[in-house]
Specification:
single chain, 118 residues, mainly alpha, globular
């Protein structure tokens, strides 16, 4: 696993959601190795919890920025990252109270994947 990819994804998410930085740090090491490394899947699993707890406070522009970022991550040339976004994030949000609102923002590959479940 490319360690820099996981850090790049973390940087991308925290640019859109600055509050995610403290949330990520507060989650301890549940999805981190002893040396502090982590995978994009583990990161997206933690981000799922953040989104569940904060979605009602996100404005539409921020959700749209997330969707654009997810589409970049789901580029087929980044197949492993595509799977991480799909199975470690999107799939976990399909039965949430905000799922329909999220769906209204999704497009492209993210919407295609999400629609299989919601």
């Amino acid at each position: 696993m490319d360690k820099s990819l996981a850090h790049d994804v973390l940087d991308g998410l925290t640019q859109i959601f600055p509050d995610f930085t403290s949330y990520w740090r507060s989650e301890g090491d549940i999805f981190r190795e002893q040396d502090g490394t982590f995978t994009p899947c583990g990161l997206f699993l933690v981000f799922t919890g953040f989104v569940r707890g904060h979605y009602g406070r996100f404005n539409p522009e921020v959700i749209d920025a997330l969707v654009i970022y997810l589409e970049e991550c789901m580029d087929w040339s980044k197949l492993d990252l595509h799977n991480d976004v799909a199975t470690c994030f999107l799939e976990n949000l399909t039965d949430e109270p905000f799922s329909e609102d999220l769906r209204s923002h999704l497009r492209g590959r993210a919407l295609e994947y999400f629609s299989q479940f919601a």
